[in-house]
Amino acid sequence: MESIWQALWPQLYPAGQLILAAVLGALIGWQREKHGKAAGARTCALVTAGSTLFTILSVVAFPSDPARVAAQIVVGIGFLGAGLILQKEERIVGLTTAASLWFAAAIGMAVGLGFFILSIIAAALTLLILTINEPARPNTGNPQN
Q1: Radius of gyration of the CA atoms of the chain, in A
Q2: According to the 3-state scheme, what is the secondary structure of 84-130?
Q3: pLDDT attached to residue 57
Q4: What average pLDDT does the segment 78-104 reach?
Q5: CA gap 85, 53 in Å, rounded
Q6: How far apart, in whole angstroms, are the C-alpha atoms of residue 32 and residue 51?
Q7: pLDDT tier at 7, thresholds 50, 70, 90
Q8: DSSP 38
Q9: Could you tell me which residues come within 8 angstroms of residue 44 by beta carbon, excluding any fewer than 6 positions away?
Q10: Would you say residue 122 has pLDDT above 80?
């Protein structure tokens, strides 16, 4: 007879993937919030977890063509990112935050495909890149990069 853990494992494993993705995304978003940028911890966590879930479902539901859903994740995140990029006076703002969301989606896809170490390294690299040359600013609610 099958143990309860053996029966639940097919659902617990992807749940763990969602949790890892949400945590990694929240860390990236926390950095953005700390610097007063748009798309904070909740947004980035939702983007990473959502792209993880879409990736898992794509692999399971469309094993012969999982790239179809992956391509649409990239398009959807591009749409979100475009909404963050603004021209303010003579400069462009929101570009770094948009790129952060784009990369957070890629991290979520990597988690969804089971590349856990790669995902953690990518998140750490993202945090390192975001902290280079950027002084902390108070959170004003205005998108700045």
Answers
A1: 17
A2: HCEEECCEEECHHHHHHHHHHHHHHHHHHCCCHHHHHHHHHHHHHHH
A3: 92
A4: 86
A5: 26
A6: 19
A7: confident
A8: S
A9: 25, 26, 28, 29, 32, 100, 101, 104
A10: yes
